[in-house]
UniProtKB/TrEMBL annotation:
Organism, scientific name: Microbacterium kyungheense
Molecular function GO labels: glutamate-1-semialdehyde 2,1-aminomutase activity; pyridoxal phosphate binding; transaminase activity
Gene name of the record: hemL
Lineage: Bacteria, Bacillati, Actinomycetota, Actinomycetes, Micrococcales
SUPFAM superfamilies, per the entry: PLP-dependent transferases (SSF53383)
Name of the featured protein: Glutamate-1-semialdehyde 2,1-aminomutase
Chief place of localization: cytoplasm
Swiss-Prot/TrEMBL keywords: Cytoplasm, Isomerase, Porphyrin biosynthesis, Pyridoxal phosphate
Length: 437
């Protein structure tokens, strides 16, 4: 048997930082990353044979729990028929129809056509190309602290790993490309109006996380998405709603379906849950826009593995099992864990707020609820690493960054939830004793 530390040493000799995605290196929580060998339901097991209750959920896809038998069987069955054909399959159409049918509200069907891709990064990248192709304009507006994947134009002041590493953006992005992205503060309609007043006729699209979850959870202000859509549309631009993280997670129709104020996005991007744990993501929108994509239109996009039959099978099986009962279980477990976290931190005298967007939540070590990236960054983030390490030591795997959401699954039953709840008081005390770096 090897240890996690031995695995990490070996990995660092083979891969930059020992990882294939930066946050996995556990740098911001000063801990040895765990190397997992198996997972089932709400549990993951590392190379040392230790089992943890998991609140990362593969960063979202494992919404039914790990290795859900129906999803595994669907993938096995698909694999037995061939790993991929580089050609069309009936399953792709069925998944596209399923996505279109689920994303509806008050009779509106914003998704008439779907293009399947392999990652959320591809989905947002394609949505932006499509918006530029449709409008003939170049500029894109994004919000500070929002993460839309790692394409060149979207890394400025990005959340998730870029925030965790406290990077302003990324080296290697040409200045000419960075200049095509305008970054403004979130939840600030004044800033939206200003940027449109200044450059409205050059702006192709605003891209927004439907309910931001990559700087911790920062819910949209009441009516923000609707007001944003109005401003964007008044200037002939498009609203790209990024539901890669929230889509099919916070409800059957994603955040689009539960925002307190209905609104009309133009393009919607999906990922994570829609692939059921395998590499699959999607862009959806009205036929008139989506059919600007090749082969019908002039906007080119393609992919060797797009619509891969195993990924399609995993996505379909996952969506099929995400019924009202599954969402009710996720919501109930999320409420219990969130309330227990808040009371443990209160008990330990730790100043904090717990922000929620549906069943997604995270803790922020601040007195007032952060509303944008600046207020998120102003929190006492130094309290998170000891909190995280204390949870891990007690067998609970939290996201290794204060800037990430906690992902609850439908498999988090009473036993799993109790293990989390029991671990929280010691972690809260560790947070209380934390000192600034
Ligand atoms: C809102 C959002 N958009 C896009 C992405 C990028 O997805 P992927 O990591 O599959 O490229 C993410 C990933 O975390 C995300 O949360």
């Amino acid at each position: 048997m090897t240890t996690n530390a031995q695995e990490f040493d070996r990995a660092r000799g083979a891969m930059p930082g020992g990882v294939n995605s930066p946050v996995r290196a556990f740098g911001s929580v000063a801990e040895t990353p765990r190397f997992f060998v198996s997972a089932s339901g709400p549990y993951v097991t590392d190379v040392e044979g230790r089992e943890y209750v998991d609140l990362v959920g593969s960063w979202g896809p494992a919404i039914l729990g790990h290795a859900h038998p129906a999803v595994v069987k669907a993938v096995q069955d698909a694999a037995a028929h061939g790993l991929g054909f580089g050609a069309s399959t009936p399953g792709e159409t069925e998944l596209a129809e399923l996505i279109a049918a689920r994303v509806t509200r008050d009779g509106a069907h914003p998704v008439e056509r779907v293009r399947l891709v392999s990652t959320g990064t591809e989905a947002t990248m394609t949505a932006i190309r499509l918006a530029r192709g449709a409008t003939g304009r170049d500029l894109v507006v994004k919000f500070a602290g929002h993460y839309h994947g790692h394409s060149d134009g979207l890394l400025a002041e990005a959340g998730s790993g870029v925030a965790t590493l406290a990077m302003p953006g990324s080296a290697g992005v040409p200045a000419a490309i960075a200049a095509q992205t305008l970054v403004i503060p979130y939840n600030d309609l004044g800033a939206v109006r200003e940027v449109f007043a200044a450059r409205g006729d050059e702006i192709a699209a605003v891209i927004v996380e439907a309910a931001p979850a990559n700087m911790g959870i920062v819910p949209p202000a009441h009516g923000f998405n609707a007001a944003l859509a109005d401003i964007v549309h008044a200037h002939g631009a498009l609203l790209i709603l990024d539901e890669v993280l929230t889509g099919f997670r916070v409800g059957p129709a994603g955040w689009y379906g539960i925002d307190p104020v209905p609104f009309a996005p133009d393009l919607i991007t999906f990922g994570k849950v829609v692939g059921g744990g395998l590499p699959l993501a999607a862009i959806g929108g009205p036929a008139a826009l989506m059919e600007l994509l090749a082969p019908l239109g002039p906007v080119y996009q393609a992919g060797t593995l797009s619509g891969n039959p195993l990924a399609v099978a995993a996505g379909r099986a996952t969506l099929d099992h995400l019924d009202a009962d599954a969402y009710a279980r996720i919501d109930a477990a999320a409420t219990t864990i969130a309330e227990a976290a808040t009371s443990a931190l209160d008990e330990a005298g730790v100043t904090h707020v717990l922000q929620r967007s549906g069943n997604l939540f995270s803790i922020q070590f601040a007195a007032e609820a952060p509303t944008d990236y600046d207020t998120v960054k102003a929190q006492e983030a130094f309290r998170y690493p000891p909190f995280f390490r204390a949870m891990l030591a007690q067998g609970v795997s939290l996201p290794p960054s204060v800037f990430e959401a906690w992902f609850v699954s439908a498999s988090h039953d009473d036993a799993a939830v109790s293990r989390i709840v029991d671990a929280l008081p010691a972690a809260a005390r560790a947070a209380a004793e934390a000192m600034p770096d």
